[in-house]
Write a structure and sequence with these properties.
- It contains seven helices and seven strands, in the order ααααβαββαββαββ.
- It is α+β, with helices and mostly antiparallel strands and 340 residues long.
- The strands form two sheets. A five-stranded mixed beta sheet has the order 2-4-5-7-6, with helices on one face.
- α1 packs antiparallel against α2, α3 runs antiparallel to α4 and α5 runs parallel beside α6.
- The radius of gyration is 39 Å and the shape is elongated.
Length: 340
């Protein structure tokens, strides 16, 4: 209310004074000589002019103060400083505009920080990819030079060609994994979440690692109702489960076991994938789901560190989640939860 009176009081006072003078002039018209009436009206005009001039000067001063405050706020924000004249709790036009400027500045700063984080992620990704690609390419170059520059028996030549083939397959696997990762992160694919046979999805995942398990004499057991139906994307869920199973077979010694058990779990359907492998330290439970992470104990085992990252991303996009429990030397259990 004080601001209202400060802004409009001069105008109100001028109108009130004019009204009083006009009323007096009407009442005293017959008693005041013409000369006195002219003086009275002149005084009224001077009073009105003075009050309006004062009001105009006040308005101009407020506009200049408003512009100065906004400019000072803008200058401070452009310099990366906290505005000194920003009165956050004051209900005025200047404080409202300043508040919007500060909000805009905060959003711009957050966008800049996010851009820096994205840039850092891209740099780390390029570095990781370069590291992953470097070894197989160097091996292929070495094998190619040997084949070109040295006379070899057919048997030896066949061995080198097999080793080159293995390196090429490793590169192809890396590229395919990177493509999947890119599609997941950029959202350039569509999930088709609909009621599907979970038994068929698990069978598809097991088929992908069956040959590797047989080579290591690893027994695979599945406990799942053949009539179980859960809403999920069959193709991508099989990819996620296959990646977890591939890790289980990869890190389980020969003659070990990998088991799959499916059971209802509150609002979810729970899929437990257990192995008798080397296990994981508790402090690395979160690390194993990071892009390109490889533990020290896994350094000698073939892999690029994308399988579990892709698995968690796929399950998360279906509003599910993955948990892990493990004990070094005694195996690991991954629990995949899919909405029922």
């Amino acid at each position: 209310m004080k601001k209202f009176y400060a802004k409009y009081m001069p105008v109100n006072a001028a109108l009130l004074a004019t009204g009083i003078l006009l009323v007096l002039a009407g009442l005293l018209w017959e008693y005041i000589p013409p000369a006195g009436m002219r003086v009275l009206l002149m005084a009224a005009g001077i009073l009105i002019f003075a009050l309006v001039s004062y009001w105009s000067w006040q308005e101009r001063r407020r506009q200049i103060d408003f512009a100065n405050e906004i400019c000072e706020t803008a200058d401070a924000l452009m310099d990366g400083r906290e505005p000194e004249n920003y009165r956050i709790y004051e209900d005025s036009q200047a404080s409202k505009v300043q508040g919007k400027l500060v909000q805009y500045y905060d959003r711009m700063q957050e966008g800049r920080r996010q851009s820096e984080r994205d840039k850092q992620v891209i740099q780390e990704l390029v570095s990781d990819i370069s590291h992953q690609v470097k070894t197989p390419i160097a091996n292929i170059q070495m094998f190619t030079n040997i084949l070109q520059q040295h006379p070899l028996t057919d048997e030896k030549r066949g061995e080198f060609l097999d080793m080159m083939g293995a390196q090429i397959r490793k590169l192809d696997f890396l590229m395919q994994s990177l493509i999947k990762m890119s599609r997941l992160e950029t959202g350039t694919f569509m999930l088709h979440i609909e009621p599907n046979s979970l038994y068929s999805t698990i069978a598809q995942a097991v088929n992908g690692i069956w040959a590797k398990a047989r080579q290591k004499n690893i027994q695979i057991t599945v406990e799942c109702d053949s009539q179980a139906v859960v809403k999920h994307d069959a193709k991508w869920t099989a990819e996620a489960l296959g990646n977890i199973l591939d890790n289980a077979v990869k890190y389980t010694p020969e003659g070990g076991e990998v088991s799959i058990c499916v059971r209802p779990w509150q609002f979810y359907t729970r899929i437990d994938i257990s192995d008798t492998g080397i296990g994981i330290e508790a402090e690395h439970y979160n690390d194993i789901f990071q892009r390109f992470y490889r533990g020290q104990e896994a350094a000698s085992i073939e892999g690029v560190g994308l399988g579990l990252y892709l698995a968690r991303s796929i399950i998360t996009l279906q509003k599910g989640y993955i948990s892990v429990k493990s004990e070094p030397g005694k195996g690991t259990n991954f629990s995949v939860f899919l909405l029922s």
